[in-house]
Amino acid sequence: MAGKANSREAIVKTATRLFSAQGYHGTGLNQIIKESQCPKGSLYYYFPEGKEELARECIEQIKRMVSGKWQEAFERFEHPAQAIQYHIEMMAEEAEKSNFEGFAPLSFWNAVETCSISVSLREACQNTIDEWHGMLSQRLQSAGLDADRAAETATVVLSMMEGSLIIAMTKQDTGPIHAASKYMGILVERLLDLSRSDQSPPRSERHKIED
Predict the structure, then answer these.
(1) Counting beta carbons within 10 angstroms of the beta carbon of residue 137, is it exposed (0 to 12), middle (13 to 18) or buried (19 or more)?
(2) Interatomic CA distance for residues 54 and 50, integer angstroms
(3) Which DSSP state fits 160?
C-alpha cells in the first residue's frame, strides 16, 4: 500500500512541476511517467481518464495546500491584514527557495491553460478560487466588514495576489509579491478602520451616551 501511495504521489508531484514549467499542452504523459520513475500502468491505474484527470488532481492539491496555508495564517494572526501579509510573504519565500521551479499561480491554469479547452478543468479552478474567496470573505466579516464589502475585498486580495505571482514568475523576482503584500495590508487596514468609523455613533449621540 505504501508503494502504491508513493507512486501516486510521485506522479502528481511530477505532473504539477512539469505543468507549471512547460504548460498543460507542452507536457506529455510519457514525460511524466519517465520523470516520476513510475510504471506506465500506475498512471492509468490512478488516473484512468488520463491527462485531464491528472491535471484536475494537481489543481485539487494546489487548492488543499493553499487553503491550509490560509488557515495557518488566520490562526497565527488575529488581524486579517497581518494574516494576509504573512500568507503572501510565505509564498514569496517559497518562490525564492525553489528558484521559481514548479511555481505557477492558479490563474496561470485558469486563464491561460485550461479555460478555453476543458470545462472540467475550468470548474476545478473555479472551485479552488471559490474556496479561497470564501475563507477570506468569512475572516473579513469576522473582523467587522459587512458581507458585500468583505466579498469585494476578498476578490481584490485574490486578484492582487495572483497578479503579483504572475509578474514575479515572469521576472523571476519576488519584488512584486512583496509590493502586493504591503499594499494589501494597507487596503485591509483602511477598510476595517472605515468600517469601525461607520459603526460608531455620531458625535452628538456619543455625547448623549457619555452624559
Answers:
(1) buried
(2) 6
(3) H
Question: Of 116, 131, 112, which Cα lies nearest the Cα of 169?
Answer: 112
164: helix, coil or strand? helix
Q: Distance (Å, rounded) from C-alpha 63 to C-alpha 162?
A: 14
Instruction: Report the distance separating Cα 76 and Cα 206, nearest Å.
Output: 35
Whether 158 contacts 136, CB under 8 Å = yes
User: For residue 134, what is its C-alpha cell?
Assistant: 470564501
Return the C-alpha cell found at 203.
Answer: 458625535
Which regions in the chain score pLDDT beneath 70?
1-5, 102, 104-116, 199-211
192 vs 198: CA distance, rounded Å: 10
d(CA 42, CA 59): 20
pLDDT, tens digit, 9 for 90 and up, residues 162-201: 889 889 988 999 999 999 999 999 999 999 999 888 765 5
Going from the C-alpha of 157 to that of each of 44, 68, 81, 84, the distances in angstroms are: 38, 17, 10, 8
Give the pLDDT of residue 121: 86
Instruction: Note the pLDDT of residue 32.
Output: 95
How many whole angstroms separate alpha carbon 94 and alpha carbon 121?
Answer: 25
The span from the CA of 177 to the CA of 166, in Å, is 9
Question: In the chain, pLDDT over 90 holds for what percent of residues?
Answer: 57
